[in-house]
Write a structure and sequence with these properties.
This protein has about 400 residues and is mainly alpha-helical. It has one domain (about 75-375): 3'5'-cyclic nucleotide phosphodiesterase, catalytic domain (Catalytic domain of cyclic nucleotide phosphodiesterase 4b2b), CATH 1.10.1300. The protein is built from 17 helices and no strands. The relative contact order is 0.09. One of its GO terms (biological process) is signal transduction.
Length: about 400
């Protein structure tokens, strides 16, 4: 649910991030020539920019305890689940229910920054929401424990990896980069149509770090280095850069020249780990993987409906009439997930976790193929039925013709 909490006055405090919620009704009154109405209206309805002048910290408002206090029984169950957070079959959806949607606060030991992160995810997004962020953080935790990597990681590496995982999709609007570009959104212009969302997630994260003063005790040059490394990690999640990272990883593995004693190589493998965590849904148990697949496709279809409503070209994978969930997932697994996780398994040395993930991936892909086959069979059956009816109609018409 909505992560907003009531202040002492009983009035809902404003939501951070894309405040207020993005309102695509504005497109009704716009044209693609850039005539978007008054600047005030654009800022009010479509702006993603953070409103630092309204910062609660600057106004002296301290974090309030949530009214949605957990029942002791549920809290105990949540704690029990958290003790198993390193297990790959961890059920993030159950954990989300047990914590009443406050997953991110349980995963981090510093309270105020995670509160800000959680509030900046949009609960109305079917997929890119705080539950996805918590899921990616849990997966990242598992990957950081892989022996091949864990033995070289510094505390700073671990902190960077988990922070990047938690905030990698913060303030995601529920639409993709092509949508922002085709609607001439100001973020697309700001980042020159390159890694638009990822740049925004990174800059939003920096804003929260500075506002929360999480790193205020560190020297300025150290803070700047952390911010840059967070940016490098978050920008690596841009799916358009998939081949770039795969080619580089393949080269390292083939040449056996990864030196994890070097900070640069460790950082590269943190990027790969975060990329794996971000798209690991097909490698989960079927019951969990299927839920994620349905959620991400629902988000695609919502964008397609918007594009159709405003007479925009429907983006790939967003046409509910043509792009079925099984076909989308099979393509995603084949061209994106499998190549990355096969290389990850090669890096880790076929550990139990890597083998488990690849086994889930293959089984899930087989299930989607089976469902796709059933859809095609059903479609052919319906088409054949329609042809027979048409033929019968033609025969009847001929018999009635003098």
């Amino acid at each position: 649910g909505d992560a907003r909490v009531r202040g002492q006055t009983g009035v809902l405090s404003e939501r951070r991030g894309s405040y207020p919620f993005i309102d695509f009704r504005l497109l009704n009154n716009t044209t693609l020539s850039g005539e978007i109405g008054t600047k005030k209206k654009v800022k009010r309805l479509l702006s993603f920019q953070r409103y630092f002048h309204a910062s609660r910290l600057l106004r002296g408002i301290v974090p309030q305890a949530s009214l949605y206090l957990l029942d002791e029984d549920y809290l105990g169950q949540a704690r029990h689940m958290l003790s198993k957070v390193g297990m790959w079959d961890f059920d993030i959806f159950l954990f989300d229910r047990l914590t009443n949607g406050k997953d991110k606060r349980f995963f981090c030991f510093l309270f105020w920054f995670p509160v800000m992160v959680q509030e900046d995810y949009h609960s109305q997004n079917p997929y890119h929401n705080a539950v996805h962020a918590a899921d990616v953080t849990q997966a990242m935790h598992c990957y950081l424990r892989e022996p091949k990597l864990a033995s070289f990681l510094t505390p700073s590496d671990i902190m960077l990896g988990l922070l990047a995982a938690a905030a990698h999709d913060v303030d995601h609007p529920g639409v993709n980069q092509p949508f922002l570009i085709k609607t001439k959104h100001h973020l697309a212009s700001l980042y020159q149509n390159v890694s638009v969302l990822e740049n925004h997630h990174w800059r939003s994260t920096i804003g929260m770090l500075r506002e929360s003063r999480l790193l205020a005790h560190l020297p300025k040059e150290v803070t700047q280095d952390i911010e840059q490394q967070l940016g490098s990690l978050i920008l690596a999640t841009d799916i358009n850069r998939q081949n770039e990272f795969l080619i580089r990883l393949k080269s390292h593995l083939d040449n056996q020249d990864l030196r994890l004693e070097d900070a640069q190589d460790r950082h590269f493998m943190l990027q790969i780990a975060l990329k794996c965590a971000d798209i690991c849904n097909p490698c989960r148990l079927w019951a969990l993987s299927k839920q994620w697949s349905e959620r991400v496709c629902e988000e695609f279809y919502r964008q397609g409906d918007l594009e159709q409503k405003f007479e925009l070209e429907i983006s790939p994978l967003c046409n509910q009439q043509k792009d079925t969930i099984p076909s989308i997932q099979i393509g995603f697994m084949t061209y994106i997930v499998e190549p990355l996780f096969e290389r990850w398994a090669q890096f880790t040395g076929d550990t139990p976790l890597s083998e488990n993930m690849l086994n889930h991936l293959r089984r899930n892909k087989a299930k989607w193929r089976s469902l796709l086959h059933k859809q095609h069979s059903s479609s052919r059956s319906n088409d054949h039925s329609g042809q027979v009816t048409g033929s019968q109609e033609q025969t009847l018409n001929e018999e009635e013709t003098p």
